[in-house]
Write a structure and sequence with these properties.
mainly alpha
Length: 550
């Protein structure tokens, strides 16, 4: 248990920073039950949240699937017991506990649903992910907006949502239909929906319960970053929400570029379909950024996130850095540097140092790849940029070798060879970690497969690292990195070919299912059995929430 909790703390909660769930003894003392036993459903709520954390720890701990499934199922049963008494005892159709239930118990249930949503996302079960997420938002909307940890959890959800935003290319048409199972979040009954000046300016809500019930956030948090704009929120939460907004903006910009690219191809070839509807080009996030570009553009969001993180670390006074938070900022900063038109194809010393820093942090802390969000994709795209860097450096070295001794700077050439060796070593270490991590993921969640450098050097017409051999991610934002130096026609062709590659990869995975070992088949059967319990809990919640909305 201690080992799994450590894995959870070093992966998911390393970024979110939610406080530990109290033990039975701590809760008993802090809640005034010193001479009596707390109600059983209080203890079930605490146990459910802890089991859900351990399930995520098992995922990060060498992908221990069987143990993770068992712990997740234990969390489901505990939460079912935790919410049952509140309904039977109050005779009301509400998933809230009675008015005397302490906020620590209510929030433990909220956290349990959030952790279960993340667990399902790791398994590639996006339908149940969105269902658990909707339940979590419903519970948050019914809590007091002043709960100290509610904004921290919502900032974590915002970052997680930026990942789903990427994976679905901001296209709500492809999202699973969950409204029939879990109804949309109703507005808080006890809250007057008045907006302050900031909320009116950015057309958003900054209170936790209003964010949870905002209709535009029903599938992912979008628009202007609400936690970032809430100056009463913890600094780390504001910083994380700013990063989530920057990632959504990256995705919107990539979708717009891809749409323009495909539109040009369609004008040349009527048989080329476009996967992006016009509605994706005008999302709540893109509208907010366009209206307040000087405040909400990607570069300002990343700079603001870094400043807020520095203020948070100074206020906490701890010498321990939040490596995951700094990793995300470094990755986004390197993307911004690489995206400048005046620096296209040029790698500055600062850019190279940033990429090396990303490699070193991930190599030393591989559990960061299990962040609940797009961290794995950001790191993979940084590795692709390193492929381009290695190709550019290899060409430069070959040009230097072709020069005569009198025409080249020997000291500069030696330094360039040293830097090339450092970059190559860092890249190979990162590539191995990423490709191992990729194989453990469901096909639809995988980012790029990174090719190996050619040790003998490039063949005619090829580069040192043949980026054309990359099996690209399905996210258009991620595809922009392998296609960085392609012309429009080549980019469109490779994007269409990539769909076929990913389809073949999925077919190979499906064929391997037929040849599962006895142990792997037992895990498959276990997951099917436990999914029945998940559906029973979600069905139970659906009935309660449907009645409360009548």
């Amino acid at each position: 248990g201690i080992q799994l909790r450590s894995c959870f703390q070093l992966s998911i909660n390393e970024l979110f920073g939610l406080p530990p769930i109290p033990t039975h003894e701590e809760y008993t003392k802090s809640s005034g039950y010193s001479e009596s036993t707390p109600p059983p459903h209080h203890l079930y709520a605490l146990d459910g949240a802890r089991f859900a954390e351990l399930a995520l720890g098992a995922v990060a701990h060498h992908q221990d699937v069987s143990l993770g499934l068992e712990l997740s199922n234990a969390a489901v049963h505990c939460i079912k017991e935790a919410i049952t008494p509140s309904v039977s005892s109050t005779n009301s159709a509400n998933i809230n506990h009675s008015s005397t239930t302490p906020s620590v118990i209510e929030f433990a249930v909220v956290r349990a649903f959030f952790w279960l949503a993340i667990f399902r996302a790791f398994r590639g079960d996006m339908t149940r992910f969105f269902q658990y997420r909707r339940v979590c938002l419903t519970k948050l909307s019914q809590m007091e907006s002043t709960h100290p940890d509610a904004t921290i959890l919502l900032a974590g959800m915002s970052y997680l949502d930026s990942w789903t935003y990427m994976m679905y290319n901001a296209d709500e048409r492809h999202l699973p239909e969950i409204d029939r199972v879990i109804p949309q979040v109703p507005p808080p009954k006890s809250c007057v929906a008045t907006k302050n000046d900031i909320e009116r300016k950015y057309n958003t809500h900054c209170k936790a319960n209003m964010i949870a019930s905002d209709p535009k956030n029903r599938m992912w948090i979008q628009g202007a970053p609400p936690i970032y704009l809430n100056h009463d929120a913890p600094l780390s939460a504001q910083s994380l929400d700013a990063l989530a907004c920057a990632i959504r903006t990256f995705c919107d910009q990539a979708n717009a570029r891809f749409f323009r690219l495909m539109s040009q191809e369609i004008s040349n070839d009527q048989n080329t379909p476009s996967d992006i509807p016009e509605s994706v080009l005008s999302t709540p996030t893109s509208k907010a950024v366009k209206t307040h570009e000087s405040d909400l553009c990607s570069r300002n969001m990343v700079l603001s996130a870094f400043t807020l993180l520095q203020q948070h670390e100074a206020s906490v006074g701890s010498t321990r850095r939040v490596f995951g938070h700094h990793l995300i900022i470094a990755a986004l900063d390197s993307f911004l540097d690489n995206g400048r038109e005046e620096e296209a194809g040029i790698f500055t010393d600062a850019h190279i140092q940033s990429l090396l820093s990303i490699c070193n942090v991930v190599t030393e802390n591989p559990l960061l790849l299990f962040h609940a969000g797009p961290t794995y994709h950001l790191v993979t795209n940084a590795a692709i940029i390193m492929c381009h860097l290695l190709n550019a450096m290899h060409v430069s070295l070959k040009e230097n070798d072709a020069m005569g001794k009198e025409d080249r700077d020997e000291l500069s050439c030696k330094m360039e060879k040293v830097v090339f060796g450092e970059v190559l070593d860092a890249f190979l270490s990162l590539r191995r970690l990423l490709n191992i991590h990729r194989r453990k993921l469901p096909v639809k969640l995988r980012c790029h497969f990174i090719p190996r450098p050619n040790p003998a050097g490039p063949t005619p017409g090829k580069t040192y690292v043949d980026v054309k051999r990359t099996v690209m991610c399905g996210c258009y934002g991620c595809q922009g990195f392998p296609l960085m130096f392609c012309n429009n026609a080549g980019a469109a062709t490779r994007s269409n070919e990539n769909k076929e590659r990913r389809a073949r990869e999925a077919d190979r995975e499906a064929d391997e299912v037929e040849d599962l070992s006895e142990f792997e088949r037992a895990i498959e059967d276990m997951e099917c059995e436990f999914e029945v319990d998940d559906d029973a809990l979600l069905g139970y919640l659906s009935k309660i929430m449907s009645k409360s909305g009548e």
